[in-house]
Write a structure and sequence with these properties.
The protein is α+β, with helices and mostly antiparallel strands. The chain is built from 9 helices and 6 strands, in the order αβαβαββαβααβααα. Helix content is 71%, strand content 11%. The strands form 2 sheets. The chain has a 4-stranded antiparallel sheet with strand order 3-4-2-5.
Length: 292
């Protein structure tokens, strides 16, 4: 039987190798902020016939408004994200669509103010902070503070990997991305709590001479099938959404796919191992104090 806990240093190194490139990318390149955070305009246009993304992109580019953020939704609906557009700019684009591609209808034309985008960023930040703090309080109340700390470190690991990958590949980040991060946190903490609950049960029935590492490893194996089956079930749905759900949900679902997979990994390989190290550190500290 593979010993997850005794090989924990290998998984610590693997986690660092996954996190560090993302941190470097965040420092050097930053995030590709969508208009939800950076401000700008978003147009939703419906064409009478089937249209290709490249046709829409070419028209927008020819009008001088950039062509980097065009998403297709269905056969004939498109979301076009640009810098701020005036009424004249919107009319100019629509006229170009009608003359170059075919009959087009403007479904919506919205502008996100910089003040609103900044407020949204800080609201998202505080939401993540409050969620993490409440989780520590809950886990401390139900289990112990060390397990709360271990769980939050594992969650931070998940979030950093997702954010890092979005930074490396410069995938656009919008408000749906924040919803994905919060969902990932909720999923990952649930998986971790299941393992912690089994550890607590096994601690009450601990055999004489059984080490803490062996007990935790046994607990992981006892919940492993449940963890894998749960993540596979969720993955099937997410993959179906990614390939069939349309462009508007693609980035949200992609963040979920990465986060759910990494969350399962951290719950099995990191969270419990970190708790073991915290327990062993406390034990060593008490022994040193006793000797002194």
């Amino acid at each position: 039987m593979f010993h997850f806990v005794k090989h924990r240093k290998i998984f610590y190194v693997l986690s660092l190798l996954l996190i560090l490139p993302g941190i470097v990318s965040l420092a050097v390149r930053g995030m590709n902020w969508g208009i939800d955070f950076s401000s700008g305009s978003i147009m939703e246009v419906r064409f009478a016939g089937q249209v290709q993304v490249e046709q829409v992109r070419n028209v927008v580019d020819q009008q001088g408004f950039g062509s980097g953020h065009i998403q297709q939704s269905g056969d004939s609906d498109f979301l076009i994200r640009t810098s701020k557009l005036t009424q004249e700019d919107s009319a100019k684009i629509m006229e170009a669509f009608n003359s170059s591609i075919g009959s087009a209808t403007l479904l919506r034309n919205e502008y996100v103010d910089p003040i609103i985008s900044t407020e949204l960023f800080w609201n998202a930040f505080w939401a993540l902070l409050v969620a993490s703090a409440l989780m520590v309080v809950y886990i401390t109340f139900r289990f112990e503070l060390r397990q709360g700390i271990a769980a939050i470190v594992a969650l931070l690991h998940d979030v950093l990997i997702v954010i890092g990958l979005f930074s490396i590949f410069q995938i656009e980040v919008d408000s749906a991305f924040i919803a994905a991060i919060l969902t990932i946190i909720g999923y990952s903490i649930n998986d971790t709590i299941v393992i912690f609950d089994r550890i607590r049960e096994n601690l009450n029935m601990k055999k004489k001479g059984q080490s803490l590492e062996d007990l935790v490893n046994l607990s992981i194996w006892q919940t492993l099938a449940r963890s894998i089956n749960t993540v596979l079930t969720v993955m099937f749905v997410l993959l179906a959404l990614y390939f069939l759900g349309g462009a508007t949900v693609k980035n949200f679902v992609l963040a979920m796919i990465i986060g759910v997979g990494i969350g399962c990994y951290s719950s099995i390989f990191n969270a419990s191992a970190i708790w073991v190290d915290l327990r062993l550190m406390e034990k060593k500290s008490k022994l040193k104090t006793a000797k002194a």
